[in-house]
Amino acid sequence: MKEQLGERIAVIIPARNEAQTVGEVVGEVRLRFPHFDIIVIDDASEDATGEIAKQAGADVIRTPIRLGYGGAVQTGLKLAHKRNYDLVILMDADGQHDPASIEKLISAARGNDFVIGSRFLGEACYRIPLIRRLGMKIFSAIASVVVGRKLTDTSSGFQALRKDVYSLFALGDYPVDFPDADMVIWVARHGYRVAEVAVRMHERKSGRSMISGLASSLRYALKMPLAILVTLLRVPSRRGGKQK
Amino acid sequence: MNLQVRIMALVVSLLFIGYVLHLVRSRKLRETDSIIWILASSAILILGVWVKPLIFVTKLIGAKFPVSTLFFSGLIFLTFISLWMTTRISELTEQVKDLAQKVALMSEDRGKVDEKQK
User: Fold this and answer.
1) A62-109 pLDDT, tens per residue?
2) ipTM of the complex
3) Does A112 touch chain B (CB under 8 A)?
4) Number of helices and strands in chain A (H, E)
5) A228: closest CA among A119, A130, A145, A161?
6) Does B8 touch chain A (CB under 8 A)?
7) Which one of A63, A79, A82 has the shortest CB-CB distance to B100?
8) Burial tier of A97 (Cβ tally within 10 Å: 0-12, 13-18, 19+)
9) pTM (2 decimals)?
10) φ and ψ at B18, to 5 degrees?
């Protein structure tokens, strides 16, 4: 696919304590897309995540301290900016995101700048707790209004970002806690084309979700409306942004 | 404001200034960060000696006792200090994150150089 498109593509996988699954994920991506660069951002794991990812064939960048999901993703985006990739695929290390769906993201990214892999467009393979699903729906609905097209899964971490979009986050701010509708809105406000495609997602094979437990869920529920409001109030940066 | 309260305010503010100076001397607090605390405790010290401004403000805001005005002012001051400290923490957290990312990316460069040298 790399030759077909003539593009340099990187798959960025943030990981913390995912030793049980990261090897399998990297291995499968490597098998399907041997020409892509696979970069695992080891977020100061306490297990052998980094070593296993390296053995499986990934470039591993280890952060000296725990930065959280958003901090790890942004580290990957900064590296992508440095290496000047044309397209970046973001996916999780816990086995939730099916590497077979990467092709769909890439195809959609031919005509769009930012593509979200949605688990709610028909191919979800697992159940999501009702309250969390409700939160996802509400925030996706708000983002849909701003973006001007229907979005169903803004909380998905399975994404494709064109150079301009990932540079926006590499050189500017990236939500540290729960990147969600706020980052989608930020991208749309810069005039970039946002799209969604159906992807296959499985139940996580190990580890814990970013939003698990009462305190975390409450923090997510309180933080997200505020983040959306602040994103709407912010003036889009001059550095990024597409001429409409 | 009776004499006992005034003496109490004087003693507490003097002790507080002394403690702040001790923290600066032992390098646990930077000079610039200590200024606000020295100014605040100096204000209490001055108001303990010279109560007229306090009585004026008490009448102005419609409070019953000068002590209430003092407590109210202290509360407002502490609220603003907390907010300011939180912004500093946010700023420092951002700086730590940026530094950690730079270190991570530099380690990657270093690894490449090491591999080439092998």
Assistant:
1) 999 999 999 999 999 999 999 999 999 999 999 999 999 999 999 999
2) 0.81
3) no
4) 9, 7
5) A145
6) no
7) A63
8) buried
9) 0.83
10) -60, -45
